[in-house]
Design goal:
With 677 residues, this protein is an alpha/beta fold. The chain has 13 helices and 34 strands. The structure holds alpha-D-glucopyranuronic acid.
């Protein structure tokens, strides 16, 4: 006699095979989801950014996590054969089939990139799951948020098997209110990170830096009251240092909430009330000592409500341009800079900690810089907090790099999210003087439209800093003129051999240019984006790139062109049709530390190029800032030359271990003795 239970089992198998036979007949046999009847998973977006994080009630989840590599995305509930990793099934009787176990999986220290930590993952592009257990006890009238300072490049968060949400876009902080997901005692946090990039991501998959994957910033649990201060802005008016703009955002649209602003050292204390949006937008009168590289004065600032008190260290200064000059606190200044990537000295992987940035900024200071371009993406907050204290001005940027999918709304959303979160997090950092929205992006109307939207996104939050984008060199007209300048130089140089001299003379003849014409190469930066930004920034590689391409076209030796290029660099004229300061945001050359030959890749070549470039820069009055490329050799997949690059970009003034190359002193000397402002 079949009993009820057996009937149930038979019914289950009948329905199981019915589904499978139906689904096999379905048009798309390969759709395993319908086969197993798995629901597609909707993920919530991250909450509005929590600011002033270091003064809040935080519990750090940094430290030892475990991880499982998931190249087939088999761990996601919506695409897994077994319900996905978040189920976190554990062995009970020794008879359960479970094909993953985070308890026995490999360990990793977070923050940290799994493709730096595990050599076998160095070139891996895909998903890796991170796992952390933590104890928690929820306090009454409190919320618990999960705050992640940066995670590359797509992140899905699960707590105790439930999908909390997802964040698309690397490098910037995001947080989720996880109060409703937590249980008393032990909780399990699982985070799927994926460092894949595509034509429509930001950046795209083609970058000249390493796609460090995973959680590349602090991970905190943050306690707040149920109604809390989300973020606050306090910055001096660029035109009048005794006025500061004070803006507060709270988590609820409730008016009449009392918020007190205190700056004890300025003997300032004032109460304000939120408007119907739960916000405050006021100006206050203060008379602070101004922050500057020579005097990086910071003030302790407190903001409190009935339920909480948060604080920050804030410096007050103004940065502006007038005509072709840059002014800090109304004094003319040069950006005596260096560009860098977020990679520590002597340690593989991304830089993210105070210690990492301390080493990098101390090295930058040894160059006598007052300015660092933090290329090409947002760094963790530790960089700008340290730069505040050390008196180093910063250029911060988002990875809108080379050819982005300009017409894709999802791509725009990622970039807008990155720039708005970067600005919201660093809006009170005196060191941050420049926001940059792009690097070497080819001209087009959709690119202009896209970048305008990013500039407006900045404007909505902060209009007290300079905006820019590193513009692309090399219009056809510019290259044509450079070829003619090289030909003119070559046609009259004694050391050029007859054959090549003949080629140079025929190029001039073909262009109807008399042999004795003295052609000087000059260029004007007229990218239409110049209309929309404060600083005209420009990457140029005279003496490094371009001649490779010309040598093939002109059928002359590349060595000849390099030598001719070195002869003409100091005379190059750079201007812009925009009456604004020019900042050379990149120039440089590759050099292998210890290579003392007189050939390419030698330290001498790089040092000679720097001497010539700096002469040119000193000869061009519209150039008011520079950030040569680059402080330190960094990992790059575009640089495979074995024995020289070994997948490092070698344009650093120090190598990846911190060894100084000859050009280091050339730049340090220029800032010390030539460019003094
Ligand atoms: C470009 C780009 C950098 C790159 C550099 C180089 O200008 O902005 O990201 O690393 O040139 O070629 O080394």
């Amino acid at each position: 006699m079949i009993n009820f239970h057996q009937l149930k089992v038979i019914k289950f198998f009948l329905s199981f095979f019915l589904i499978s036979s139906l689904s096999l007949l379905a048009e798309d046999e390969t759709d395993v989801n319908s086969f197993f009847g798995r629901p597609s998973q909707a993920y919530n977006p991250a909450d509005e950014l929590l600011g002033w994080i270091d003064s809040r009630a935080i519990t750090s989840l940094n430290g030892e996590w475990s991880y499982i590599v998931d190249p087939m995305n088999n761990g996601l509930p919506e695409s897994s054969f077994f319900g996905g990793f978040p189920k976190n099934k554990t062995q009970k009787t020794g008879m359960e089939l479970i094909e993953y176990n985070f308890e026995t999986a490999k360990k990793i220290t977070i923050p940290g990139a799994w493709n730096a930590d595990d050599e076998k993952l160095l070139f891996y592009r895909g998903a890796v799951w991170l796992y952390k257990k933590f104890l928690h006890s929820q306090k009454d009238n409190q919320l618990t948020h999960l705050y992640i300072e940066g995670s590359n490049f797509a992140t899905k968060v699960f707590i105790n098997g439930e999908a909390v949400g997802e964040f698309i876009g690397g490098y910037v902080p995001f947080n989720f209110d996880i109060t409703g997901f937590l249980q008393e005692g032990e909780n399990i946090l699982m985070i799927q990170t994926d460092n894949s990039l595509s034509e429509s991501s930001v950046p795209t998959q083609k970058t000249d830096w390493w796609p460090w994957g995973g959680i590349v910033g602090d991970v905190y649990l943050v306690q707040t009251p149920v109604e809390y201060i989300l973020n606050a802005y306090l910055q001096t008016n660029p035109k009048d240092h005794t006025i500061a703009e004070f803006k507060v955002k709270t988590s609820k649209f409730s008016s009449g909430k009392k918020i007190i602003l205190e700056i004890p050292e300025l003997d300032f204390k004032q109460a304000f009330e939120t408007n119907e949006l739960g916000q405050i937008e006021e100006t206050i009168q203060i008379n602070p000592m101004l922050w500057s590289p020579s005097n990086p004065k910071l003030y302790k600032v407190y903001i409190s409500s009935k339920q909480e008190k948060i604080s920050d260290l804030i410096g007050f200064r103004s940065i502006q341009t007038k005509g072709q000059k840059i002014y800090l606190n109304n004094d003319e200044i040069n950006f005596k800079g260096i560009a860098m990537h977020a990679e520590p000295i002597g340690i593989p992987g991304p830089a993210f900690s105070k210690k990492h940035f301390q080493q990098l900024l101390v090295t930058a200071k040894e160059l006598n810089t007052n300015f660092v371009r933090a290329a090409h993406y947002p760094y963790t907050r530790h960089l700008s907090k340290l730069a505040d204290k050390m008196g180093i001005m910063l250029w911060e940027e988002v990875p809108v790099y080379w050819n982005i999918d300009w017409d894709n709304p999802a791509t725009l959303e990622i970039a807008k999210n990155q720039i708005s979160r970067l600005v919201q997090r660093d809006q009170n950092r005196a060191s941050v003087v420049v926001w940059s929205v792009a690097n070497e992006t080819p001209l087009s109307s959709s690119r202009m439209d896209f970048l305008l939207k990013l500039l407006l996104e900045i404007e909505l939050i902060d209009s007290s800093r300079l905006t820019t984008a590193a513009l692309l060199s090399g219009s056809e007209e510019q290259f044509r003129l450079l070829v003619l300048t090289l030909a003119s130089q070559g046609a009259k140089s004694e050391w050029v051999n007859e054959k090549e001299k003949f080629i140079f003379q025929s190029i001039l003849a073909k262009a109807n240019i008399p042999l004795d014409t003295d052609i000087k190469f000059s260029l004007s930066i007229d990218d239409p984006l110049g209309e929309l930004v404060d600083l005209i920034s420009y990457n140029e590689y005279f003496g490094w790139y371009y001649v490779t391409f010309f040598a093939e076209q002109m059928m002359v030796g590349e060595g000849t062109l390099r030598k001719l290029m070195f002869e003409i660099i100091p005379e190059i004229k750079i201007s812009s049709s925009f009456d604004k300061p020019i900042h050379i945001s990149e120039f440089g050359a590759g050099a292998q530390y210890g290579n003392t030959t007189d050939k390419i890749w030698s330290e001498g070549y790089q040092a000679d190029l720097y001497k010539l470039q700096l002469k040119m820069i000193a000869n061009n009055p519209q150039i008011q800032g520079i950030s040569p490329w680059v402080l330190k050799d960094f990992r790059a997949m575009l640089r495979p030359l074995a024995g020289v690059q070994d997948f490092y970009n070698r344009k650093g003034l120090i190598d990846e271990k911190g060894n100084k190359k000859e050009a280091f002193e050339v730049l340090a000397n220029f800032y010390q003795n030539e460019w003094k402002k």
